[in-house]
Amino acid sequence: MDKVSPDCPYPGCFFCVMKEGNPSKRRASILKFFRELPSQDDDGQVLPISGLWNTAMAHPNDPEFIELGIFECMVALIWKGLKNRRWLSHDQNIYIPYYAAHIIGSYTMNMEEFAESAIHAGVTPPLVELLRGRLTWVEQRVAVRALGHLATYTNTFPAVASHGEILELAIQLAMSSLEIVYSHFYQYADRRLSYHCDLLTRGMGGVEMESRKAEEWASQLQCWSLQLINCFAFKPEFLPTICKPEFLVKLPGMWGGLVNENSPAGIGLLRTICHHKLGRGPVASCPGIIEALCNIARSSDDWQYMAIDCLLWLIQDPSTCHKVIDKAVPALVDLAEITNLGDHKKLGDYIVNVLQECLQSQGTGRNTISNHVKELIEELLNSKHRLKWEKSMPKEDLHIKQAAALVVKLEGNSLFSSGNIAGAASKYSEALSLCPMRSKKERVVLYSNRAQCHLLLQQPLAAISDATRALCLHSPLNRHAKSLWRRAQAYDMLDLAKESLLDAILFINECSQSNDPDLSLRQNKVPDYAERLVKKQMRAAWLFREAAIKHGGVHGEGDAGDIYGQESDGSEWETASESDIGNDGRAEMGDDDDDDSEWKNEDKRKDKYDKVTLKDLKHGYNVHLAEDQS
């Protein structure tokens, strides 16, 4: 190389080359550097590699290095690390295969032509070796990331798929990644490899930060494995390999956690599988998946629409409808008043049409639907007919109906206050039958109040149903604070920690942004009952929980419900109506969303809550948007 800084002791230094002012000389020097680097054994090689890594992360669409042979250089370095353990253990060369695979992944995440160049340079075989675990889980993580990017493109997918073991390896990694990271890194802080710690924290943190980053990287390892599998799932010929019961049953529980919320993870893969007829059969036959899909469909996160799509496709398929209808219809009925959900316009109307077709196509034998399901669909269709009928009613008659519903609701409030919870629930049901369908704000209150009754009557499924209906009616969608809180507790009663946690966090977030005096802050503090539930569910939904239990880790021992001790008789079940708690801690029933409703509540609390913000979730299976910076 022609130009070396007089202060630099290394001939041919990459950083000096990059300062070359003559473009022609600079390109020639870079080309020579990429060709010669793999054959050199000098100390300090990790420095230019880390510089290239920084450049790839900052400018992944810049073609210069691709044209000059960076992929060929990275391939040679990975092979060198795999074949020459003496070289790998010398100086800081242990970092080089990680950086090399990361560079390949960064340059192939956006540009198909770069991915084609990478395939021609032979990146796939060494990446497969890293995916096999020839080094450690840290290299597996960047290998699966790079292979996932290569498999995304039409022109490069065949080259990835030609390595038959990649799909099987990705499936095994998706199922075992959390346990691998827990047992090989997280569990014993004093046994952690130093280069792992350096890569995780960039040398800026101690044991606690290493542990937090390990959880994030473990989630990425699993989610990127699922993204790679998802690329195969678009091709019907690979579905038999993917749709094994032992794998399918685990998919609903694979989520990014709070550390990686912008990945659809398991539900994204399930949606791709259910989109094809060959995938719907195994999903419908797998125990537990339909219940999990129903829970996700009712949830308030950004992957809700994916679960709804799965349920609708399964219902519309004659070969799977009879297997899922009893579980899927109640969830879909709860969601039938959603207007728009993301890009899904008039989703509620579409759900109604699908269920109506289902009812009309019922036959004999296995296609016969149960009386309970038939009643649910007919009740839903009657409510739609009622809405049309009310549109032709004089306004005076609608006001009379609304006034009558108000009177009955107040009777329900009175019964609730006197301790007659079942009687109150009955009155709220009567008020719902009277209340005009277009009076959405009032119906939100009635459904939410009835959900509170179901909670106190120890009927969590009914509480979830009513709280979900209130959330679907509310504007904005899924943002009614009290219904979120009530549903969070109902999920807690069913030991559904993840669902309870998400609702509890959204509840606190909504309260922090509310102008409703019912939900105003007190000393800028999250109330104890909300904090207690969030902590409990974070423990129970902890990403490493299963691995910790299996390996005897302290974080996984015991029942999460015992962490905070035994609850008193006046426990959180009676504080579900968070804005209706008197100073004595006794729950009272009041109206929800007083600023949004014509039915005013006289009791006002002056509590306010800290804002807890979830990251903006991104739709679709585009992992490119979830790239980490290390």
Provide a descriptive summary of the structure in words.
This protein has 630 residues and is mainly α. The chain is built from 31 helices and no strands. The chain has helices at residues 14-18, 23-36, 46-58, 64-67, 70-83, 85-89, 96-107, 112-120, 124-131, 137-152, 157-161, 165-186, 194-201, 207-233, 239-242, 245-248, 265-274, 277-285, 289-298, 304-316, 318-334, 347-360, 371-391, 395-417, 421-434, 440-456, 460-473, 481-493, 497-513, 528-540, 545-550.
SSE blueprint and pairings:
Elements: H1 14-18, H2 23-36, H3 46-58, H4 64-67, H5 70-83, H6 85-89, H7 96-107, H8 112-120, H9 124-131, H10 137-152, H11 157-161, H12 165-186, H13 194-201, H14 207-233, H15 239-242, H16 245-248, H17 265-274, H18 277-285, H19 289-298, H20 304-316, H21 318-334, H22 347-360, H23 371-391, H24 395-417, H25 421-434, H26 440-456, H27 460-473, H28 481-493, H29 497-513, H30 528-540, H31 545-550
Helix pairs in contact: 3-7, 5-7, 5-9, 7-10, 9-10, 10-14, 12-14, 14-17, 17-18, 17-20, 18-21, 19-20, 19-21, 20-21, 21-23, 22-23, 24-25, 25-26, 26-27, 26-28, 27-28, 28-29, 29-30
Quick recap:
Pfam families: ARM_7. The chain is mostly helical and 630 residues long. It has helices at residues 14-18, 23-36, 46-58, 64-67, 70-83, 85-89, 96-107, 112-120, 124-131, 137-152, 157-161, 165-186, 194-201, 207-233, 239-242, 245-248, 265-274, 277-285, 289-298, 304-316, 318-334, 347-360, 371-391, 395-417, 421-434, 440-456, 460-473, 481-493, 497-513, 528-540, 545-550.
